[in-house]
Write a structure and sequence with these properties.
Its EC number is 6.3.2.2. This protein is an alpha+beta fold. It has 15 helices and eleven strands. A hairpin with a 2-residue loop joins strand 6 and strand 7.
Length: 389
Amino acid sequence: MGVEEELLVVDADGIPVARAPETLLIAARRGEGEDVHQHDLEEQGSDVDVPETAHLVPELKAQQLELGTPVCTTLAEVGAQLRHWRSRADAAASAVGSRVAALATSPVDVAPVPTEGERYGRLHEAFGRTAEEVLTCGCHVHVSVTDDEEGVAVLNRIRVWLPVLTALSANSPFWQGLDTSYASFRSQVWHRWPSAGPAGPFRDAGEYHRLVAAVLATRTVLDDGMVYFDARLSANWPTVEVRTADVLLRVEDVVTLTGLVRGLVETAARDARAGGAVPEMPAEVLRLAGWRASRSGLAGELVHPRTGRPAPAADVLADLLDHVRPALAEAGDERLVGDGVAALLARGTGADLQRQVHRETGDLAAVVRAAVEATTGEATPRAAAVASR
């Protein structure tokens, strides 16, 4: 398994600043990432020699960057790698007078600045205002599968649970300086892309690949990297990639999410091998379930994956844990993931922390500063007290 996270680069006033290219240049010189020029050549299929240690890379906007863990086999390793690479990203940003924040949208009003590069330029030309306005940060979890047939069998069985992952990762209540009333407004913005959203179920891997080919044949998206299904087969790795989560403030919550995703994938693979039926839920209902999850996070009701009816978020999470418990137990993750879910229910999501800080201070810049502290694990006593409520 592995995790990719997108982070904002911010200044002392909490404003996202277009210093990611400078930050990545520092990281590249330290052997810790690709600069914008290297990455653009890589995206165009060049044989540029990118170091194997590259884990920090550019993203669509110059106010954000992406980190990726290496392949991990335990949740402890995932947590250690995330802490390491968040720390290295922050150190590189600090060298150019900035910090990094695991925020899925910017609390303060910001004018997004495009990252230079041929592919990014084509994205902005093709998608106009959508590409211009999008400054969002997600978290993608990869889990290995045996082959595409197993991968599609997994996708068919986990799709009904993906809105629950949106709810527990919710970390984007503010947009353009205002409270949106959503827990994950990033999800709303993200679904402006034409290929984003739920997909499936599929009869087999052949049908999945035919759908991807049909999407590409419309010439609406640029390439297979823009097949933004909520979960998909990775184009580059033998993995299922789950893409519905906001970037999460705390590393421990990313570890919980990763454990749940691996548990879902393993449970689905076992069910497929046993000949279990694929859960039935139309994509239109899944889209509604995703909307409800983004609206209230863990504070309200979610659409239950088994019934298609509203149920308290705590009950849905309890059923999710029951669903994946055998897989968690076999991996030795049952207690860690169970405690992580309990912690999220007790203290709330990143969206809850952001709103708590804003209620106490009335200052969106303070929200960003608290997020920087939570991102790097260097929370002050006051921020830690707020986070624990």
